[in-house]
TrEMBL record:
Protein name: ABC transporter ATP-binding protein
Membrane topology term: Peripheral membrane protein
Cellular localization per UniProt: Cell membrane
GO MF entries: ATP binding; ATP hydrolysis activity
């Protein structure tokens, strides 16, 4: 695994103009991912996971104001022209989104859609791009790829459509694969197949992967590092074994406690009381404070905790880091 980051995000902030005022969707986040590594961004819906990645890759909404620095393969991506960003993104970044039917054009064959990126970004002829499409469909496990290359999306199951989308994402052999909730719309068996497929392709191709999800079970099985987001900020980040094995932030602890446990039988699910704050009115201090079971002193409400080290690569944003036994520590 290379030490150089494929994608590095520094102090990324995204503010979206709305009729009710500016909404801060992402607030000063830092993360990076290296070749062959999987970074998982986790948190509740609306925590800023997807928006941080869209902004980092130049796909934020037009109404968004993006600040900070993004480096893609060592190049200052934020300072590049829109055309250069488009070419870099098309050549070096592949995307797999949640619903394959919204990623595929229903009136084009899957082969045409897989081939298109090779023609546009690699300069392949139409014939060469079609042959490459067959290879890619075979690579991602589409049976009889040479025949099914001329089929349409509606002729595939949900899991097979997601495999087609992965083939599209890999068409230019990207250095980075963005997987945004890629298994949410699929049944459990198909989810496991897609997760294993991406992991296998990563091992073979050495691709860096950013996996956006709320499914902590998936994260535990595939990620090298994890960043836990809440209200647009990273509250905890580090190696997945450290963060899941010894969570230091009360929010991380609460998320892990809320995972369904089949061994527990039919008991009630653990939930986190309350709801995340509106991005239109974020508090000055810790955004998790109103829901926090630790609920420290007044500075939690009025002062933003710094991101501090728990160990060499494990960091947490709280005044009261949790000990391994769940007790709150103090500065």
């Amino acid at each position: 695994m290379s030490d150089a980051a494929v994608l590095a995000v520094t102090d990324l902030t995204v503010t979206i103009g709305t009729r009710r005022g500016p909404a801060r969707a992402v607030a000063g986040v830092d993360w990076s991912v290296r070749a062959g590594e999987t970074l998982a961004l986790v948190g509740e819906s609306g925590s800023g996971k997807s928006m941080s990645v869209l902004a980092a890759t130049g796909l934020a909404p037009r109404a968004a104001r993006v600040t900070g620095q993004v480096r893609l393969l060592g190049t200052d991506f934020t300072a590049s022209s829109p055309d250069r960003r488009r070419r870099m993104r098309g050549r070096h970044v592949g995307f797999v989104f949640q619903d394959p039917m919204t990623s595929l054009n229903p009136v084009l064959t899957v082969g045409r859609q897989v081939a298109e990126a090779g023609e546009e970004h690699l300069g392949l002829t139409r014939r060469a791009a079609r042959a490459r499409a067959v290879e890619l469909l075979d690579l991602v496990g589409i049976p009889s790829a040479a025949q099914r290359v001329d089929a349409y999306p509606h002729q595939f199951s949900g899991g097979m459509r997601q495999r087609v989308v992965i083939a599209m994402a890999l068409a230019c052999e990207p250095d980075l694969l963005i997987a945004d909730e890629p298994t949410t719309a699929l049944d459990v068996t198909t989810q496991a197949q897609i997760v294993e497929l991406v992991a296998d392709l990563q091992r073979r191709l050495g691709t860096a992967v950013v996996w956006i999800t709320h499914d902590l079970g998936v994260v535990a099985g595939i990620a090298d590092t994890v960043a836990v987001m809440y209200a647009g900020r990273i509250l905890e980040q580090g190696p997945v074994d450290a963060v899941f094995g010894q969570p230091a932030h009360p929010y991380t602890t609460a998320l892990l406690a809320a995972r369904p446990d089949p061994a527990a039988g039919g008991g009630d699910l653990v939930t986190i009381a309350g709801a995340p704050p509106s991005p239109l009115a974020l508090p000055a201090g810790c955004a998790f404070w109103p829901r926090c079971p630790v609920r420290g002193d007044a500075r939690c409400e009025h002062e933003l905790p710094p991101l501090r080290p728990v160990s060499t690569r494990h960091h947490v944003r709280t005044f009261y880091p949790q000990h391994a036994d769940g007790r709150a520590g103090h500065e």
